[in-house]
Amino acid sequence: MGVHRPLSAAAALATGALAATALALALTGCTPAKPTPGFVEVTPGLSTSASPTADAETVAADPAQPSTWTIGFDGVGPLVLGTPSTEQHDVLAAFEPEVAADGCGLDFVSTPSGLRVGTAESAADGVTSIVLNVDIPAEASPGPRTANGIGIGSTIDDLVKAYPDAHKTSGMGEGLITYAVTDASGHSIVFGAWRTDPAITTIQVGTGDQITAEGCGITA
Predict the structure, then answer these.
(1) Which end of the chain has fewer beta carbons closer than 10 Å to its terminal beta carbon, N or C?
(2) What gap in Å lies between CA 168 and CA 158, rounded to an integer?
(3) What is the structure's pLDDT at 37?
(4) What is the mean pLDDT of each run of 10 residues along the chain (220 residues)?
(5) Nearest alpha carbon to residue 200 among 153, 149, 135, 167
(6) Contacts of 19 (CB under 8 A, 6+ apart)
């Protein structure tokens, strides 16, 4: 039977070092490596692009600046369908009121840019329609536009490209060609251009799909 001799101090240290190294290697295989500073680990299939920030602000409509107004199914800028008439009159107080023409069922104001803004109202329902109009679209300053960029001065072709579901609502032989876009609630934005000029001259927001402004210097 052989004799077991004690290990020398140097051999013991060497054996301990080897054991420690083996243990470290084993642990390394089980623990994920730390990311290198300056790099971001990306899980496949996930995007690291930032979502829209909460502090992105929408520019508020300035009642005195129609160019800041957005045309929507529920109103135009600070003008909102269903709002009591007195409130809408206050909103338009910065502009010059027009003398109502005989047979015109809307109250119009004129803005310095040449844009006319009219509202039809009832005691029970408040504002029922909003009409924008200019005499000569080519001479009009920038005014209200829809979210898709359509406004006074845009052409019918522009409209159809921006709103493929727009449908023609004017009849044969009418001087004002009209197209309407309608939402699920039944509200419509109606765009009108004279048959002799493709530029949009009139826009109406309300429940009807035709421009109803007879006697107001708009329809012929």
Answers:
(1) N
(2) 14
(3) 42
(4) 50 48 49 43 35 42 91 97 88 89 87 92 93 89 95 96 97 90 97 94 95 73
(5) 153
(6) none
Give me 77's structure tokens.
Answer: 């800028």
Q: Based on the number of CB atoms within 10 Å of its own CB, is 217 exposed (0-12), middle (13-18) or buried (19 or more)?
A: middle
Predicted model pTM: 0.72
d(CA 45, CA 36): 21
